[in-house]
Amino acid sequence: MAQQIRFFEKNKGDFSDQAVVLTASQGNDYTERATDRNDATAWMTTGSVDSDNTTFEIDFGETKRIDTIMLLKHNFKSYEVQYWDGANWTNFATDIDETNYAEASSFHQFAAVETTKVRLTIRGTQTANEDKYLYHFIATEEIGQFNGWPQIKRTTLSRNRLRTKMLSGKESIREQIGAFSCQLTVTTLRDSSDLTLIERLHYQNEGFLVWLSGGDEDQFSSVRRGYRLEDIYLCKCATELVNDWYQGIYSNGIVVKFDLVEVVD
User: How confident is the model at residue 163 (pLDDT cuts 50, 70, 90)?
Assistant: First the structure.
């Protein structure tokens, strides 16, 4: 069954948090690449083999509440994720212990825990003894998921192109890493939980993660950028909260239209 749009708190291990410490038993110089929100960079190892049981640890620097682990765009076949209970590495209520994983992205949810750190242990890659890589390591807490189906409009993956006219008449075009934005719109929405979720997003002081695929990219006729499992963006509402009843009739639903833009923090 198709998944609706999901929203999560900012990654509790995000690179922008100076209290967070990332360590890996291999490729330690590249750990920040797994939490830098950049689709073009990844944590990776050099000369690693499966028997190394490579570890990647996120120390939050303080107690954080999490109920979701995302490993987006990786090559792990066998791996385990645990949390620190103050004395030992412990399994979540729903174990994260894969032995024959075949996909490029993983999504795990469990009963929420409060912890100071989490550890990923990679016991094997999808191609035996290949170097490990991971583009996004996200430890977070879910805010909510829509029940209704807002129309996703103006999904933009901007490269912030700068055009300069040259004396020859040709143009020089410079491109940046770029940013994501989109608009969500519904003519009338009556679902109270969806409306409460929209209100919460508008009053969220910190950026929140937006996952358009909701964990199911197969619902789309083809897999396009912005809708892939690996495409998750730190956003804020760029428009004000407007709670207008459709046609001004109080027994009608609310007219929903708001913009989401990718933010720095």
Answer: confident
